[in-house]
Amino acid sequence: MKIYDITPIGKPRMTQRDRWHKRPATAAYWAYKAQVRLLGITLPESGYHVTFVIPMPASWSKKKRAQHNGQPHQQKPDKDNLEKALLDAIFDDDSRIWDGRVTKRWGEKGQIIISETTSINTAGAPA
After folding, report:
1. Are strands 100-107 and 2-4 parallel, antiparallel or unpaired?
2. For 20-40, what is each residue's pLDDT tens digit?
């Protein structure tokens, strides 16, 4: 298991205009991609489990923070957009990725936790 101290963000909806007009959402996305590459985060083609730890807002009370710490994160950003942003940061072409699991949880600080799971061979039987 590898733990990276980085606040995950979801991939924003982008348009052609984003090439020259830098919106805050796209600027944060490009910075996130650069930080992922600097950290040297890698994923296998299959058999990974990525846990995105979403930081709790500073405005939450200590009681509310204690209740939510480690609990499932069931609001935006969507898990598919988090995974999409991570895969785009790691791979130039992520079409080779065919099997992976994603979880979102609340935490004190943003993290990406990557562990490898039992891989499945292409015939469908456990390897």
Report:
1. unpaired
2. 677 788 888 889 999 999 999
